Amino acid sequence: MKRLLLSVSDGRGFDIALVSVPLIFLFTMAGLPLVYNIVMSFQEVDMFSLGTIFRPFVGLKNYTTLFSMPETWPILKNTALFVIASIAGQFIIGFALALFFWTNFPGASWMRGLFLVSWVMPGLVVGAIWNWILSGDFGVLNYLLRESGLITGHIFWRSDPDFSLWAVVIANIWLGISFNMILLSVGLSTIPQDLYEAAELDGANVIQRFFTITLPMMRSTIGAIISLGLIFTLQQFDLFAAITAGGPNNSSNVAQYWAWDLSFRQYDFAQGATISVIMIVFVMIASVVYVRSTRHEVRG
Amino acid sequence: MTVHQIELTGINKYYGAYHALRDIDLKIRKGAFVALVGPSGCGKSTLLRSLAGLETISSGDLVIAGTKMNGVPPRKRDLAMVFQSYALYPHMTVEQNLTYSLRIRGVDKAEAKRKAEEVAATTGLSHLLGRYPRELSGGQRQRVAMSRAIIRNPKAFLFDEPLSNLDAALRVHMRKEIRALHDRLKATSVYVTHDQIEAMTMADHVVVMRQGIIEQQGAPLDLYDRPVNKFVAGFIGSPAMNFVPASSGADGKSLRLEFEAPQAIPLTRPVQAGQPLLVGIRPEHFELAGDADAMLRLPVGAVETTGASTYITTATEPELVIVLNSRAAIRSGEVIGLRFDPSHLHLFDQQTEMRLG
């Protein structure tokens, strides 16, 4: 104890003390729940054994049960669809906007700032707004599609099993565009202007400059954004809760919402934990990609 | 077919209300090495970038190889530029950097590779073709930037202060290398620099600019021998020319230099009597003189010796700098006699600062 105090007063070891504070915080707030979740996925958990840690060990039974359930594969397929469509939409529209604002017309930075509005809004509020927009009878989206002649009847976005997942995808794309745009804008602004001038003198037109300079120079930014996008879409819960609640008949259910539903509405904590563990694996892979791509930055 | 590769007539450039280039007229002979030189903000880089098409000119005619290029985008002007920062593509190897312009034009891979190897051999980069720019030294990057320009065989080379990121020794070396390269390729080159020594040593034709105006252009030694005004006189030459206010005597054949203790010197060419003048004399044109033939007697302020030459600063107002290409046992506080050839004097009007005679 005296040595510990001494290490603070003489300055040596003080760095370790400083680092240990966030480490302890991370371990208790993130590490322990994570481990607890993994442990639960190998146990039999019911309402009566919730209060203890030492519960009957059941091996991989929770996993085999999970994959024998009829809804598992459709829900995993929904999750993949949701993640891929969301990331693709957010990234492509975000990149297009970033390039648009990069041309720096008068008021560009001011307008770019406005786009952050979607990002600061709580997911439940975004969900409520989109509930109105997507509404089958009087929604703005249906009105626009009908008036432009793309559809003839009404689409019941939230209650039609063919559209329910896409309703959430649309809202999630809208929610994520600004985040993608800001990060991509930052990436664009780090590319030295003289590279474009050199390429221009070397004879490259706008499209050639985009594919030979912009894209390769943005590689690490793009890697980071895609992996962050994967992490964020796998965490997206509010929109499901607000728009479809996974329905109808699981047609818009995804793993993260299902895990919550199993744990806290059906009180099947073991199954909920099992799904979470499967998701942790995917998020871990994305994290590794993220860390690697931010490390491999190309700088002249 | 004109002998001028680049012809600029009445070029003006405005940034909003700021008048960056004012009525620039400049003709560049095919195969010439032209240096644009001047202090920062004089418009030399703007002029170069306007040539390249990276800036649009507000008015005037810009003709390259007989074709008017005013609104033509940079990629269709067939000019190659070496940037101050080199602007190498960081995600490409040296070979890819060199062949970029060829690949953009759709030259086939084998041909591009052959050309890259050919150019690399002449610039000493053969062993570095597989490296990335970040793995190269400053001098090597500089060579890659030049090779990237050479490989295209463009109508003209544009250099934007290409040596300013190098250390002093390498700069002197690259100066010779660029000049040798120019002599070998006989390519028209326009070279922007703020360093008058670079301009004087490398160029056939020096253009001195200030505040968007061409103050004077001509062969380097003409600028040194007959500067048209005080600015050019002070800008060309190192250390800079000394200027002393003076007035001519009643007969117009002698000058009174206005130090605290005025001194009279004879003139070879008579000037108008009683005219207020500015006398310019270069530091290297002074000689030490004994009591008998001294034209000036001035107290010494500071003495610096480099071994080869001695720099003397006088304790007068205005102070004079004198460079002697020999060692001299002179100490601060001494009064020395000085002599110079009166034909080396430069006379300027005190008001307009323009050359007289």
Can you give a write-up of this model?
The complex is a heterodimer of chains A (300) and B (357). Chain A is flat, with a radius of gyration of 24 Å. Chain A is built from 15 helices and no strands. Chain A has a single domain (64-295), classed as Orthogonal Bundle (MetI-like fold). With 300 residues, chain A is mostly helical. With 357 residues, chain B is of the alpha+beta class. Chain B folds into 2 domains: 4-229, Rossmann fold; 242-349, OB fold (Dihydrolipoamide Acetyltransferase, E2P), CATH 2.40.50. Chain B contains 8 helices and 20 strands. In chain B, the strands form 4 sheets. In chain B, strands 6-7-8-3-9-10 form a 6-stranded mixed beta sheet, sandwiched between helices. In chain B, strands 13-12-11-14-20 form a 5-stranded antiparallel beta sheet. Classes of the chains: A mainly alpha (300), B alpha+beta (357). Chain A binds chain B through residues 192, 194-195, 197-205, 208, 212-213, 216-217, 219, 298-300, and chain B through 52-54, 73-77, 79-81, 83, 85, 87-91, 100-101, 104-105, 133-134, 148, 152.
CATH superfamily of chain A: MetI-like
- Shape descriptor of chain A: flat
Straight-line distance between termini of chain B: 38 Å
Molecular shape of chain B: elongated
Largest sheet of chain B: 6 strands, mixed
Residues in helix, % of chain A:
over 70%
Distance between the termini of chain A: 50 Å
CATH class of chain A: Mainly Alpha
Mean pLDDT of chain A: 86
